[in-house]
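Hey team,

Filing this mostly as a record. A colleague (T.K.) asked me to run one chain through the structure pipeline before their review meeting, and I want the input and output archived in the tracker in case anyone asks later how it was produced. No errors, nothing strange. Just documentation.

Input sequence:
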Amino acid sequence: MLEGLRIIEIEGIGPGPFAAMWLADMGADVICIQRPEGPSLPGMEGPNLLDRGKRTIALDLKSDDDLAVVKALIATADGLIEGMRPGVMERLGLGPDACHALRPALVYGRMTGWGQSGPRAAEAGHDLNYIALSGALWYASPPGQPPQTPPTLVGDIGGGAMYLVAGMLAGLLRAGRTGQGTVVDAAIVDGSAHMMALVASMLPSGMFQLARGQSLLDGAHWSRSYLCADGGWMSVQCLEPKFYTAFLRLLGLEKDADFARQYDRELWPALAGRLEALFTTRPRDHWTALFAGSDACVAPVLSPFEAARDPHMAARVSWATGDLLQPSPAPRFDGRAAKPGDIPARDQHRDEIMALLNR
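Output structure:
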């Protein structure tokens, strides 16, 4: 879908590399400019999954000769992705003004946690901090328990990388029409707050309450996960009455007067307790088989390795297996599932990239 577009990625960690990987998954020629000394995080010394489908070259941004190579590459590019703190790229001579002088149509993507401006812009932070401040962490756990979310998914990936990709694609569309570049300021605090729009839309109606554990999707007995006899978990979220009815029928509870009062908040804790006791009487596979093929909106909670073997996930090849378990590219276009690109070694494509510049 993005064949013919070139993206220069200034190596970082987390959402920036993910965004560049996603663009590469969709066919863009992504050239990742890596640090000569390797990654800053321990345990990431080998091939990096987030580099799949990219070409790599190691360059020292503080070296005049290497900086000249970077600028020459930018002059050939449609987009650039960087994840430095505000001001760092400007001090390197690679800020938006300098890059637009090299390539006026360049879409300059900036990925940060706090954004390019505001009181916290220069501070360090991580995924959990950003979504805590944005409001996105508020409903993350039952009342009385510490708010906790799956690592990186809500902040780095959801509020960060995906908003950067959306902004890059919008900028590329405009550049294609007008020849005018733009600067995309993708901040995790902004994106994760924006993701709360559906929740915010339901606050006036009372469907969502500010008090944790009192809303339709964070407190009801029909919207949570239950422990099974073997230590596995089942997810339940039968929001609509017809799905809730199917759920009760399969459990033999369709004639229970208390369970019939689906939206009675006062009953939710007690009914959740009854379901907790019920689910612990059988292993996860029993419940998976019981609800299979129904509209009860129940599914087992699987690890990534289990998910790769699940019949539905395996049929769609949502997880690619082989030497390394990795998610397949998404979304799909024209019904075809794309294969993940090769994962390059550091500095693997130096010769061909330098040849590209006739240096």
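Quick notes for T.K.: The chain is about 35% helix and 15% strand. Residues 83 and 256 are 55 Å apart (CA to CA).
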